[in-house]
Design brief:
The chain is mostly helical. Helices cover 58% and strands 7% of the residues.
Amino acid sequence: MVLLPASLFAMMVGSHLGVIETTYQPMKVAAMEAQWESCQPCSFSVFQIGGGKNDETPTKIIAIPHLLSLLADDQWDGPVEGLNELNQQYQQQYGVGNYVPNVFVQYWSMRVMAYLAVVVFLIALLGVYLLWRKKLMATRWFLWLAIWAAAIPFLMNTAGWLLTENGRQPWIVQGLMQTSQGVSPSVSATSIWISLTIFVLLYGTLAVVDWTLMVRYARKELAPEGEADEHDLSNAAMAY
């Protein structure tokens, strides 16, 4: 009952962020749809074939009319500037270069994030329905699904991070500082590899320990009723 309105609200906020991105980082939004040429109104493809950085004519499958205009401009017939036009504008403004991010990563990371958000909403909707029908605790397949669905927000978060960080390339700060200008001369490639390796090993070890402990205690049987210690019962109100 909490997840249903929360997931709906999150999708609404995410949709509004698309309008903000169009204002400040239009290249990110154009890459999100692999929109190489400007359009008005603009459709949104459910998925596409092709559309990488060197493919300006992808095959869009199930294009939903006007949806990209709504997501990017909050208008039914809103315009969206294409990657080619934006790249030309940036070259005139900031100098010669390629200002188009990795379109393939941008396109699919957006869809992984958005589609999984819809999956979470549908799971919550189904859970509320089963709760209303008083069948929630008896529907074993849904309880099994709900446990594994706990991994979905982590996948969504990762996809959203890729969408954000890949989409702003080649900028660290839009219009002010490029990634190529952010390399510190005092930090060697060896230092970066060593620190990155340590982080991966550390978090990998913590992940294994965390998983082992969760599985161990999840499989541990509960104590039979009536065997609780009398001292524990007398202090039950203070036990957490």
